[in-house]
Amino acid sequence: MSPIKIGFVGLSSRGWAASSLAPPLLKSPLSDLYSITAVSTRSPESAQASAEKYSGLLSHPVKPYHGSTEAIANDPNVDLVAVSVKTPQHKAALLPAIAAGKDVFVEWPLGNGLQEAVELAAAAEKRGVRTLIGLQAWQSPLVSKVKEWVSSGKIGRVLSASWIAAKPAEMTVWAPFHNGSDYEIYALDPNNGATILSIFAGHNLSALTYTLGPLSSVSATSAHLYKESKLVGDDHKPTGETRPNLYPDQWAFTGTLRDSGAILTASWHTGGTATKETDKVRPTLVWLIEGEEGHIRIESTAILGSAVHLRTTHKVIVNGEEVSITDHELGNTGQAWLEFAKGEKGRYPTFDDAVVVHKHLDAIERSAKEGRTVKIDI
């Protein structure tokens, strides 16, 4: 089988694409399944630098593009257009690729809000292209095992589930501390669709809906405790500058799981530290699933413990016994590429799966704003 030829939009010298999405593609076995043939960035200078870098790493020419994605989308030497740019640019970057009949990948979120996500999923379905969304929780060994245990009846019928997640202060995004780079500062504007709810809770909701199924309704509450965010430098120390924090920083909801009828309660909070001092250690994640015949309990005190889509740093107890779980050698992003290469046999999230998560986020946001229970139509 010929390698899948990737045109990478947003693969520059920094950012998520350069640090997490592209590196696994350079390693075996993915290096035999994929080939980066083109890159597209904002400027001709950065595109040329990226093309030269990956031409050297891959020992074959990588073509540079910049600006609109129409050119890279219509390159005959590109099968799959991978997009990793800021959320407000997703729709404009994806539509030319879909129109050109190319398979597409985009980092989460799919669109800037539910409406854009629905439009993009519909466009991809109409054109008949394959889609992949960067919801890495689907590839997490931890999340996969939870899904297996629940589906196999290891704990019996699910009776209830709870999720308590912390975004500790050391995770310098949103509030109370935020990375002060120009590239990251856009996340403080909720109109850009990269909020603590859409990104942080969105990845968590992907894990919850993947393992337990979707919710039929939610009743949510939010709180806005931090009115400003203190900017930090590369050393993670405050620079003395601040920016308004315009969006709620604490979220909670109760909801009914559609498939089991069980109640799910979930909350996300920020502000506290995840210090390693033994007398001050606090959990960053507590995930409990109660069944008629047992339970699953997952805990972490790691700074990124609530980011289950990134890595496994958790204590896992199933029916009273501790279970050890090992991460993929390729990481969750690499495992997603591997599953996508399998075609119809692969286990990976599509744009339709992304719409499911977007619908949950939209319902949570509306419920908190309007003070009522909101039904979710899946």
Automatic annotation (TrEMBL):
It comes from the Eukaryota. Keywords: Oxidoreductase. InterPro entries: Gal80p-like_C, Gfo/Idh/MocA-like_OxRdtase_N, Gfo/Idh/MocA_oxidrdct_glycsds, NAD(P)-bd_dom_sf. Residues 4-133 form the Gfo/Idh/MocA-like oxidoreductase N-terminal domain. The keyword Oxidoreductase applies. Gene3D superfamilies: Dihydrodipicolinate Reductase, domain 2, NAD(P)-binding Rossmann-like Domain. Residues 141-300 form the Gal80p-like C-terminal domain. One of its GO terms (molecular function) is oxidoreductase activity. This is Uncharacterized protein.
